[in-house]
Specification:
Elements lengths: L2 H41 L5 H59 L3 E6 L4 E4 L1 H7 L3 H6 L11 H12 L4 E9 L5 E11 L4 E8 L1 H16 L3 E6 L4 E4 L1 H7 L3 H4 L16 H10 L3 E9 L2 E13 L5 E10 L3
Antiparallel strand pairs: 1-2, 1-5, 3-4, 4-5, 6-7, 6-10, 8-9, 9-10
Helix pairs in contact: 1-2
């Protein structure tokens, strides 16, 4: 809490205490004066008995009412003070949390943002500012859809709708415009907080990862060996051009299709060898002979598992190298 706010609070409660003290002293003074008046009335016969009785009843009654009011005011003051202390503690904890959040946003390497339902960013990390090149003021004052690539806006809106339904988003990819007009590809993980009315998200810049994957795929496509990768359900997830040409398809037409589409001995290892690889989680190399155009061709093939972070096999690949005779 700021020093000025604490000073104002101290002055406010001090003034209330002083007012209560003045009221109490005034009421006590009234009682004393009333007692003096009654004494004088008894001594001086000019005042009638009925007036004395009325004064005796009325003045103390008013004084007692004032004292009761003062006491009630003191109780209310004490309650207000307790409520104020609780509120001040909560504000202090909130300020501490805000300071911690600000520090975390400033030092984290992750690209983080907090977005409101009004379509504007409420908070951004320093790393996001650095990556996009826009100033923090620009990012916070401009609707964030203006930074998203036009081709990615529809999918981004659909993703936001899913967040509004309570779903979490992991690995959602879109492109953000940088200060120099180019685009960076960001992979987002996000969740919505309905209570606060915000969406909290963190991202990784995968622009370079996409370039690396593209270069690696070009290298695989230029190679003479045969490569195919399929998941445990038999769906082709990758292959190279040499394999696609050999089985009579384009690479793009094979991706996402079942290996059952292929009527070729090149597409997979024998079932017993695949099961051995999946059981041992280790590569297995063996010789193969295929007949092509009436002639035999010898290959050295290696079947290998692809594991996830838990060590579970999620895909199986096969590389076949032709043996030159």
């Amino acid at each position: 809490m700021a020093l000025n706010d604490k000073k104002k609070t101290f002055e406010y409660f001090s003034s209330w205490h002083v007012q209560n003290k003045i009221t109490l002293i005034t009421l006590i003074a009234i009682l004393l004066l009333s007692a003096l008046f009654v004494t004088a009335a008894i001594i001086l016969p000019a005042i009638t008995t009925s007036q004395i009785i009325a004064f005796i009843i009325l003045i103390p009654a008013l004084a007692c009412f004032g004292i009761a009011t003062c006491h009630s005011s003191s109780l209310e003051l004490a309650k207000a003070r307790r409520d104020y202390d609780k509120l001040a503690q909560r504000l202090s904890e909130t300020e501490d949390s805000q300071i911690t959040l600000d520090r975390f946003f400033s030092i984290s390497n992750d690209l983080m943002a907090v977005a409101g339902k009004d379509g504007r960013l409420k908070k951004v990390s320093k790393s996001l500012v650095t990556t996009l090149g826009h100033s923090e003021e620009t990012l916070l004052s401009t609707p964030f859809f203006e930074f998203i690539h036009p081709e990615d806006r529809v999918s981004t809106r659909e993703n936001i709708k899913a967040l509004s339904l309570g779903l979490r988003s992991v690995g959602f990819v879109n492109r953000y415009r940088t200060a120099d007009g180019s685009y960076r590809t960001l992979s987002w993980s996000a969740a919505a907080d309905d209570e606060l009315g915000v969406r909290v998200a963190s991202a990784r810049d995968v622009t370079d990862e996409g370039s690396i994957k593209s270069r690696m795929q070009r290298m695989l496509d230029s190679a003479s060996f045969l490569l195919i990768v399929k998941d445990t359900d038999g769906i082709i997830t990758n292959c190279n051009e040499a394999f696609a040409v050999l089985v009579g398809f384009t690479r793009e037409s094979l991706l996402g299709k079942s290996v059952k589409l292929l009527n070729s001995p090149y597409h997979s290892a024998p079932a017993d060898k695949e099961q051995e690889v999946l059981k041992s989680l280790a590569p297995l190399t063996y010789d193969e002979v295929f007949v092509k155009g009436g002639a035999e061709e010898k290959y050295i093939s290696t079947v290998f598992p692809i594991l996830d972070q838990t060590g579970k096999a999620i895909s199986i690949g096969k590389v076949s190298v032709k043996v030159m005779q």
